[in-house]
Amino acid sequence: MPKRVLITDDALFMRITLKNILTKGGYEVVGEAANGKESVDLYLQIKPDLVTMDITMPEMDGITAVREIKKRDPSANIIMCTAMGQKNMVMEAVAAGAKDFIVKPFQPDKVLEAVQKLIG
Amino acid sequence: MKVEYVNPFITAAFSVIETALNIKAEKGPLAMRPCVFTSQQCNIITGVTGMVEGQAIYGMSLITADRIASQMLGQQIRTFDQLAASAIAELGNMITGNAMALLSEAGYICDITPPSIVRGTNVKISTLNIPALVVPICLGLGEIELTVSLQQRS
Question: What's the rounded Cα separation, in Å, for the pair A89 and B105?
Fold first, then answer.
């Protein structure tokens, strides 16, 4: 059974790019969320093995979404996938409960490496 | 409007364009405008908030937008649809996002707002009366006009 991933990004382009990378890497993309709130709702419904999370999104930002997901499931595997690579953002995301941080633009190998490290 | 605010955007633009589009970019001559104004046909607008605030706008012709979107999507686009717009917007988001890391290293901690796209010419965008610095970024696919208009938060 392939491991199940939920993608969170407000950019359709980025959701498609990540889906292609993950599918080619042998993972099943079980959901796509366009903002933090959708991601939290979808997480509770589908309980994926891992979530990729953008930070700058309308309605609810990614760091708030990480906190909300971790409140309900402290063991959630979440990787931040964002253009915002500054130290304070990384620290805030890690403090919220994110387990890894990938800065866009990324190479497909980097994404698969980070995902594999967390869920195999 | 300090020149030190614009340099992170130029550095970030070069690095993002090279990684996302696999193209080397070149910088054109820097110019100053009294306010944010763009005569480009397609503009990606990203907002900056925090210790410095304002906007970074990536303007280009419709042909350049089509070419960049095609390169990012790995296939020739037929119409500038939602996916093509999303690809172009993401390019602006990545450049501004990467510039924020460089600005924070210079001591200015900032956040960005989600990008939006404005299509149309002769658009005056900001209501803030901040002068703008304009830098043409030349790539094989056409030219991106980078307009940065930032001021330190009072």
Answer: 12
The minimum CA-CA distance between B113 and chain A, rounded to whole Å, is 6
Quick check: helix, strand or coil at residue B39? coil
Could you read off the pLDDT tens digit of each residue along chain A, which spans 120 residues?
899 999 999 999 999 999 999 999 999 999 999 999 999 999 999 999 999 999 999 999 999 999 999 999 999 999 999 999 888 899 999 999 999 999 999 999 999 999 999 999
What domain range is A112 assigned to?
A: 4-119
Topology (CATH level 3) of domain B3-152: Chemotaxis protein chec (3.40.1550)
Mutate to test the interface with B, among A7, A9, A13 (most CBs of B within 10 A): A13
ipTM of the complex as predicted: 0.90
Distance (Å) from the C-alpha of residue A92 to the closest C-alpha of chain B?
13
Would you kindly state where each structural domain of chain B is located, as residue ranges? 3-152
Number of domains composing chain A: 1
Of A106, A66, A36, the residue nearest B90 (C-alpha): A106
**What pTM did the predictor assign?**
0.93
